[in-house]
Amino acid sequence: MQWRPQRNALPLYTILLLALVLRLIYLNFQSLWLDELHTMNEASPRISWKELFAYLKCCDQHPPFAFIIERISFTLFGHNAFAARLPSALAGTASVGAMYLLAKEIGGRQLGLMAALICSLNPYNIEYSQEARDYIFAFLFSALSYCYFIRLIKLPSRKMAIQYGLFSALLVYSHYYGLFVLASQVFLAVIFLLQEKGKERTTLFKFFLISASIVTVLYLPWIPYFIEQLKIKSFWITAVPSSFLQDYFFEYFGKVESIKPLLLLLVFFYVAHVLLYAKKEDGPLKRNTLPFSFLLLLSWIFVSLLIPYLRSLLVVSMLYPRYGIIVLPAFILLITYAFQLIRYPLLRYCLLTLFLVLTLADFLFVRKYYSSVSKSQFREMTSYVIKENKENYPIVNNKTWWQQSYYLEKGGSKAALLTEPAAGLFDSIRLKSSVKYRLEGFWLVGAQGEKMPDENTKASLDSAYQVVQQKQFYDAWAQLYVRRDVSKAKWIQVKYDQFIGGAVLADQHLLALYSGSVKTGELTLPKGKYRLVITAQGQMAKNDYPHLILYCNSKKIGSYYLNADLEDKEFSFENDLDGPISITIEMDNDYSEPGKEDRNAFLQLLTIKALN
Fold first, then answer.
1. Number of H helices, E strands in the chain
2. Per the confidence metrics, is the pTM higher than 0.85?
3. What is the pLDDT of residues 269-298, one digit of tens each?
4. Nearest CA to 133 among 186, 66, 77, 189?
5. What is the DSSP string of 566-589?
6. DSSP secondary-structure letter at 259?
7. By CB neighbour count within 10 A (0-12 exposed, 13-18 middle, 19+ buried), where does 195 fall?
8. Confidence band (pLDDT; 50, 70, 90) for 1?
9. What is the CA radius of gyration of the chain?
10. Band of the pLDDT at 4, cuts 50, 70, 90?
11. Dihedral, CA of residue 330, residue 336, residue 338 and residue 339, to nearest 10
């Protein structure tokens, strides 16, 4: 990239600063999810380079560039989530600059600034700029490869051929889909070579040959790895729908319903201009901006996606939105050019402002990207288990144990990790088939779409173990199973159908508290400190949720407001009585308007655990 000082550079630097802020802010708000945990383990400084490349060959089918960058970042800043996501945030910011260079090369500085601004606020670009994977690098080098491809066509030179070759090599080392981008450029190169004559054709061919040689020589060491990927005949991606192009297009701009009509209008407006005005331009195609841009974008989008689509139909499904991020620069360029074609500046900038405001409003206030959890909460689930697992009970995780191991190690867990298939493992525990399985208790955890045990699985353990503690997170959960004779001494559970008062909703496994209070029967608790966890949810009325107050006999333990989700709320209390106690749960803000609103609370479980 050639960052030359230029006059009136303030708008570009302002856009880049905005892009950097949007990509660095709340960088660690979300937990690392499954694929990012692959990055943490595979690029870990604690394993050898040989092991890293072995993972990329057998298990995580990606080229090595991003993983090498991650390894360097871990070495410099530590093996943590911030160090993992920082390279992506910086690459995402650089991609905004790359969009400026690319659009400027096609249509001038104004087009470049608009493309950079749209890219800086693009939800898809921001999201993958905050993910410790290689997708944003694919975006960056796809844009730069095309930028220098255009420069080579317009002004052929050895320097330009070398730069184009280097950026193209970085592209194919960032993601395998980079090969499809190169295929689209080969298609275009043939067209432009055919347009040239005599010496100009020979010169352009020579420089293309230099670029191709650079890419080939640099990619040779990775060919054995690439061949291994060609052997894959089954993959986790499901069948690709025929509407994938439209679906991806909207997804890349945030799937914002309010801007879909505007996006379609811009596409039609651009294509209409090409059909109406392109033939009126004289001279070589590479000098005529509108038809040149159309041929470029058409080839970039359709060739780059057509090849993986056909392979998905004929061999194995391999087309997925985030893999197609290689064509997002082309989509941004298309939309930007459509804005540029609007003849009246006031209308152009009003529509551009509307587009950006609606995009940002949806991103910040509808999706709540920076405040709403959207990634599997491995971090929170693992932290909870480590905190609660004072007894160092084994942790059972047979599907995502390798990914979770990063957080277990980081949190200092000393518990054994059991990774056998759940069904057989439960039988071994229930039958105490060896010393290893004679357990006082164990934690069962799951994430990344894994469901909690069904009733049949629970029943297989029910005679010996019971769930005494559990917590749900976003796309993750944890359950503590304890042998019944042990749980009686440490845990007391009162289920929804064991309270005095209220209305049992058996089909929902809930106790409805429509008004007043409910209480437990007499509970025998020795003097000491206890933790109480209540699992409940509420129904809003008059813009307010139920407010609960909890008492141990007549002594207040605590109070809180419910919300619409079934959640756990934890309180600590001390029992200083010798006799039996009872826990009372009171709703003190009941409200009902017949036929309209009714504020109600719904209880599922009360768990009391001794802390001493």
1. 22, 17
2. yes
3. 999 999 988 666 666 788 888 999 999 999
4. 66
5. -EEEEEEEEE--SS-B-EEEEE--
6. G
7. middle
8. very low
9. 30
10. low
11. 170
